[in-house]
Amino acid sequence: MGIVSEVRALLGAAHVLTGSDTARYGIDTTGRYTAVPLAVVRPGSTAEVSEVMKLAHASNTPVVPVGGNTGLTGATHAPDMLMISLERLDRIREIRPASRLAIVEAGVVLEKLHEAAAEAGLRYPVTFGSRGSCQIGGNLATNAGGSNVLRFGNTRAQCLGLEVVLADGRIVDLMSELHKDNSGYDLRDLFIGSEGTLGIVTAAVLKLVPATRSHATAILGTDDLDAALTLLNEVQEASGGAVEAFEFMPRFYVDQYREMRGDAQLPPAADHEVTVLLELGSASARDAESNGLAEVLEEVLGRALESGLLRDAALAQNEAQRRAMWHLRESAADVILARRPIVDTDVAVPLDRVSTFLDMAGLRVSSIDPQAEVILVSHLGDGNLHYAIWPSREDTALQDELRAVIDDVAVSVRGSFSAEHGVGLTKLGSMERLKDEVALDVMRAVKKALDPENILNPGKLLP
Amino acid sequence: MGIVSEVRALLGAAHVLTGSDTARYGIDTTGRYTAVPLAVVRPGSTAEVSEVMKLAHASNTPVVPVGGNTGLTGATHAPDMLMISLERLDRIREIRPASRLAIVEAGVVLEKLHEAAAEAGLRYPVTFGSRGSCQIGGNLATNAGGSNVLRFGNTRAQCLGLEVVLADGRIVDLMSELHKDNSGYDLRDLFIGSEGTLGIVTAAVLKLVPATRSHATAILGTDDLDAALTLLNEVQEASGGAVEAFEFMPRFYVDQYREMRGDAQLPPAADHEVTVLLELGSASARDAESNGLAEVLEEVLGRALESGLLRDAALAQNEAQRRAMWHLRESAADVILARRPIVDTDVAVPLDRVSTFLDMAGLRVSSIDPQAEVILVSHLGDGNLHYAIWPSREDTALQDELRAVIDDVAVSVRGSFSAEHGVGLTKLGSMERLKDEVALDVMRAVKKALDPENILNPGKLLP
């Protein structure tokens, strides 16, 4: 009996899709990768995931776990492979407000967790564009980032405990609820970010933080990035580290946004070489009553305008204005992906090297394709740049060259060629070219130790 | 030529100690483990650590790395093994205030880093009793915790990048300065907390936080722990998460302190079933100017006294009073270790199960040794209890039984038998008895992948 029949016998025919029924799983969000998987199976529990893996292991069948399938690196590409969708493991098992934690299954959609936390007066702070469809298991598998990493860290920083099914079907119980636990190697963080190549995440214990009670949001305009970074440190000093977002948009991005949305939509102060969206947040009742955040921000911005550090600044006076400011930033995917061909990257560089990186990268792009246009937005507060290029012509070799050059420049200033999207398939070349060789060897040794038959998401992450 | 002669030729005789010259390395801080190592070598650079490891690897010589040797689990016990002391790798290579990071070598004493950060107007937030002699390499090898974990996380949470020498002498360069870096498996966190069994930490990139500009410190008295935890959440709500320490001391501990130090030393409000030392901290200039933290705290404590949640509370009015409050807590080692025999543990339990744990553990101890006395202090804010027992008599079997029972009870409420001290030798039994079996298997597979000859700190951490 083949693996597909075996899995059908195990889960029932309704939860084993083949052929055209797999279509929506077989194409990724970028449209770059399409494939017909051997089958898509939808186990309903950790025990069933374990049983499926035992069958796959016995028959040496390659397996690709999939969550919301919103990744950007082709990490769920599964030609002729068995896809395990975690969508039916969608229960929020517990929200424990006194201990500030949530126990969730892998298939829970991020936005559902946001809602459940909010109902308990709490907050799960990781958020990004695909929150309405991405799943917690995928967030953990890719160590998802987003706009709040500056204050709260990435997905790894939110996770206290994890449950994982191994390549051979055994279940690892790391479901700790503890903030301190030094009982052996940190397997949790090894599985987080391993893109389904070391095990399949089935459940997690996640930290929650107090709900935000007040915001202060502003658009800042200045001529250069270093001024913006100086201001960031000043706001952090004055507010005691309350900055939740510090998002940089260069003039060219703002111009494209305006062209797409019209002048009316543009928030005030957004018309400068360097436009920054700044948001402070506080969970304190006192700050909410006294409007304390806005006062702090007004004071710092006032000084910065006087001293010439800033050219322009506008504070949101109400929620509608705040939303208009965020709209400018959150339209990035629409604005940047509106034109094709496109070369998109996801690099991070040390904060004090962002300007250097931009200068170097700009020169390299121009020298390769003088008519190319660079369009980017950046989580500047953590050095993460979504640096995209609109090349002058459709030419795969040119696009590959441009992508490689951006990765090279990032690493040359001690940055990374993958800030938050992971490696998957798209960054295997950079991984091979740019990652420390000994680190790569250690990763290969770890992969071999945990998945000796190489059945878990083969061909991804490790060149 | 034997390994000792080879290493002498490499490093010079002055940096290779043998026989009685090794005495201060051969005894641990608890006095429980003494041994004569084969030799203690003191390389002066990462390259030299690498060369020493190549020699050790070629000759299959077991190696034990050692920092300040302040660990409490026998993890540096090295009978007839080669000890590598990192003490000469003691440079703070860079403090970069704009990027809020420090690049340090493994042998830097924790307190030196505190001082260097303070000079730059910043703070390295990990701190604990042995800060004057413990070293950053050891802090990383054991993922050191302490009193500020509640707010800032443990050592792992401070580390951006790491340099590690492997069992075969190769150097892994993971010296990232990035807050976002998803380029492959998280090897950094795998090495952190691995107690020298997977590699030798030689350098690290550490995060710094803004210096604290104001404190509000108080002693709280109440009758039960749940009231204390309710209050913790109220203070966190009101202050926006500014609690840096929430340290619980039961009456018996306070009585012993008073006996040792005299009544005069006792801070006000410390005479209750449950005494808590609470400290808020803020880096904000505004809070410092307005005395904002003290106002918040007064308000919350006022309400709690009125409602009966608290019986008593006293705010430190000046630095001398604050120091007296901390003295009560920081005398724990002196007070608890004053009597022998002693059974000391280091457990963590979920916050909402601390009372349950204490009830269960107390009953078990009484049933085994009715005359035993329990003395403890606790980083209550993160569920970490240093639960110690003074048994009625000198009896190794009894002590071992008591220690095992405490670990068992902690794990039975989903806690851990090692919160912050690690496993080393003392907790191998609990590791074998209580750790998830599949997790143990994965750890063994990882160990074998990275150190196939088992020369790095053999016999520690993994049963």
Features:
homodimer, 463 residues, five-stranded antiparallel beta sheet, eight-stranded antiparallel beta sheet, alpha+beta
Descriptive report:
Two copies of one chain form a homodimer. Chain A is built from 17 helices and 19 strands. By secondary structure, chain A is an alpha+beta fold. In chain A, strands 12, 13, 14, 15, 16, 17, 18 and 19 form an eight-stranded antiparallel beta sheet that branches. A five-stranded antiparallel beta sheet of chain A has the order 5-6-10-8-9. The first copy, chain A, has a four-stranded mixed beta sheet with strand order 1-2-4-3. In chain A, a hairpin with a 5-residue loop joins strand 8 (159-165) and strand 9. At the A-B interface, strand 9, helix 7, strand 11, helix 8 and helix 10 of A face strand 9, helix 7, strand 11, helix 8 and helix 10 of B.
Set out the fold topology:
Two copies of one chain form a homodimer.
Chain A: H1 3-11, E1 16-17, E2 39-41, H2 46-58, E3 63-66, E4 82-85, E5 92-96, E6 101-105, H3 110-119, E7 122-123, H4 136-141, H5 149-152, H6 155-158, E8 159-165, E9 171-174, H7 187-191, E10 200-207, E11 209-210, E12 214-222, H8 225-239, E13 243-250, H9 251-261, E14 274-282, H10 285-290, H11 292-307, E15 312-315, H12 319-330, H13 332-337, E16 343-344, E17 347-348, H14 354-368, E18 373-379, E19 384-390, H15 396-412, H16 428-434, H17 437-450
Parallel strand pairs in A: 2-4, 3-4
Antiparallel strand pairs in A: 1-2, 5-6, 6-10, 7-11, 8-9, 8-10, 12-14, 12-15, 13-14, 13-18, 16-19, 17-19, 18-19
Helix pairs in contact in A: 1-2, 8-11, 14-15
